[in-house]
Design brief:
Length: 177
Amino acid sequence: MRNRFSQQTIFAELCLLVLWSCGLHAQPFAWETAQATSHVTLYAEFNPFVVTPGTDVHLQIQVFPATGWHVYSILPQPDGGPDPTTLTLSLPAFLVPVGVLTESPAEKKQDLVLEMEVALHEKPFLLSQALRLKSDAPVGEYNISGTLSFHACDQRICAPLQHASFVTSLTVNSSTP
């Protein structure tokens, strides 16, 4: 188990290094490890992670399904299908969601356990939620927590509803560094 975690950590860091070196992000990431369940490992962070009042920020959650397992999409599934993956956030009053949770494209596959075509993720994927800081957001560092609720299945069984919690920090400055 420890070896798989190390490989996932290296993979995530390499992906982020490539994205950052291509100029896709204004600041390097500071991923924070969330709870690892037997079916997924999560990394969560704000981009950018230092912001000023009145600006937008994206909470990004990298999800790594365990080898041989898949996690269902955030999109509604067919009737009788699995519940979609959901994100619950504990936000201070000055931080409000903008729009809906988004995800990397899910694969449409035949689920052998459920015997139907569903949208799922077998490989690492990214969830993103845009948030807006109100103009009166107080300066300081804040720990923001959340919980990802999901179903994970392999080729034979589906696990009961899983919950993986995370905490990541956001710094509010009076001006951008």
